[in-house]
Amino acid sequence: MRKREQFFLTVFLFLTLSIILFFLGKTAFFTPAAGFFETIVRPFQNITYSIGIIPQKFFINTQLKELRIENQALQKKLVDQETLKKENSALKDQFATTYPKSQNLLPAKIIGSPGFLPGVSLPNFFVLSVGKQDGVKLGQAAVVQDNLVGKVTKVSKSLSVVTLLTDSSMSFAAQTPEGIWGVVKGQNDETMLFDNVLASKTLHVGDAVVTKGDISDQSIGYPSNLIVGKITSIDKTQSNLFQTAQVKSALPFEALDMVFLVVAE
Amino acid sequence: MKLLLFFLLLGIAVFVEGVYWQIPITLIFLLIFFIQTRSNGIFFSAFVAGLVVDVLRVDLIGLRSMFLILFLFVVALYERKFEIRSLPFVFTASVLGSSLYLLIFVF
Fold this sequence. Notes:
By secondary structure, chain A is α+β, with helices and mostly antiparallel strands.
């Protein structure tokens, strides 16, 4: 009987503690304590993630790496060229285009990727080693060079979560450098869907898809002309008003260990 | 020695779940250990493990602890009606617990 009482007391004690922490966690009062917790677990989190991506880094051979870098550089060149063309023809004011280079970029180490099983599944989220104390805000874009990685969807005092472009919850306006507009939607796959593109427009396999840009007055959102990926296939039916295309990012998300956040200036 | 091994394995389960996997390996590990030992100390482990996973996932702190403690409590309540130290029970409890966990925390 006594043992049973002790059992119920233990359950009650820890359950009550959990409930108290849960409600305290919602208040700003608990933020320093949560930050302290995060500081303690962060080194272990970092080590676990670093161990996990070793096989990925090992299997991506040097030649493939070089080709990927070359591919990214060529895509960048293509986008730059098209942008210059547009600017030269006075279709766009040079200040209307925001380039990631002119932004204040915050380097962030990837220390976790829940749901990512190396060699089995692809990452949909990255947990980053930066948080509110570093100036991270919800909605900020994450980039690697000129390639879009995703956007910040959760922030705590010293950690943040970036949802990748490929996640099914992601959807944003994009365009080809020729000015064909559409909406990019994640599919929980390595490819994304370039949807709502008018059937009257002509897309080509290999075309780059870039962000249209939706920066707010607080510099939060996607800057324009960030590379989303390259069109790998097109689905166009004459009877439909819209056509769709599959877009693949040039970034090897599974092998990344650092991203840059476009923070407010 | 047994206790040290338990904390080591629990630590690995917590970090693997918090950093990579969505699969609730911490829950399954705690369930198996609870059935083996039937110790009240497991509730403390569930409380801490839940907190750490929440911190690693940048989720609301305390929610996973609540779930783990309630889950183990329900398992303990079945102790009188079923022989919980059996493979069918462990399997059924793991499947049901994991499904509920995934439903709440992942989907």
